[in-house]
Amino acid sequence: MKERPPVLQSLLVALFITYMIVPIIATYIFSIATQWDITLMPEGYTLEWYQTAFDHPYFSITLTNSFIVSIAAVLVGLLFIVPTTYWVHTRVPAAKPLLDLLMILPFGIPAVVLALALIRVYSFPPLARSPFLLISACVIFSMPFMYRPVSNSLMAVDVHTLTESALSLGANTLQILIRVIAPNIMPGILSGSLLVFATVFAEFTLANLITGASFKTFPLLLVEFTRRDGRIAAALSVISFTVAWLASLALLWVGGRGRKPTEEALGAR
Question: CA 162, CA 175: separation in Å to the nearest integer?
């Protein structure tokens, strides 16, 4: 098979980057445009739409709620997915195909069906239409995004050798998972966390059906302004994208500082 010429490869990459970047740049420009409908570029620029968004009484509330749900979904996902995936890889490898199948089921279940099913089953207080039910739904919905990077990272390292070495030094299962395995699969943990955070932060259907106005999230406010004023909605989209981007950078920074090599982890024991 012939390799593509370097010029063609560069052209394809440039086209892909352009395809991805142009809508984002257009949204940024539209969010500061006074009017942009009959000319190639906006007729003027203003920060009025951002000011209107910031002044909305539900802005800080919805942003905080979205952070709570997103961070909680990441933490709960890590708490369940990482130990389970590690246990299957080391103790029950024959169950890995079944776990792979279970983890792709959320892709086949529409968010509307998932939300309505949870509302019907958990119709009793304090779970009925509560933030706890919303977080649980988001964890289920985002499981594949956490599982796949973690599973791939576990397959990329010699989990059995690391486990046996730690056991020979007297470490228990919890110490092995936290001090030995986690540092070696940190790229997978960070990738999964970023995917889950971004997915849950922008999730509209689950939040709208499960909690609605009683626990309003940022996507609900965004959709509300989409029906009223597209310029304010564009400003909210920019804010949402920027917040998610900054949170991703912060997560990468924290993960990079907390990562230790395997030798140091084993020596800590």
Answer: 12
Give the pTM: 0.84
Please list, in sequence order, all residues whose beta carbon lies within 8 angstroms of the beta carbon of residue 116, skipping any fewer than 6 positions away: 209
- What are the residue boundaries of the structural domains of the chain, listed by start? 1-46, 58-268
Provide the CA 235 distance to its chain's centre, in angstroms. 21
* 3-class DSSP state of 174: helix
Residue 17 CB: number of other CB atoms within 10 A?
A: 10
Phi, psi for residue 170 in degrees, rounded to 5: 95, 10
CB 71 within 8 A of CB 229: no
Tell me: the pLDDT tens digits for 204-257?
999 999 998 889 999 999 998 888 888 888 899 998 888 888 877 877 776 666
- The rounded distance, in Å, linking the Cα atoms of 115 and 162 is 41
Give dist(CA 239, CA 120) in Å, integer: 34
pLDDT of 80 over the 70 cut:
yes
How many Cβ atoms sit within 10 Å of the Cβ of residue 134? 27
Q: What is the pLDDT of residues 15-73, one digit of tens each?
A: 988 898 888 888 888 888 888 777 778 888 888 889 988 998 899 999 999 999 999 99
| CATH match for 58-268 among 3.30.565.10, 1.10.3720.10, 3.30.1050.10, 3.60.40.10 | 1.10.3720.10
DSSP string computed for 72-105:
HHHHHHHHHHHHHHHHHHHT-GGGHHHHHHHHHH
Q: How confident is residue 150, by pLDDT bands cut at 50, 70 and 90?
A: very high
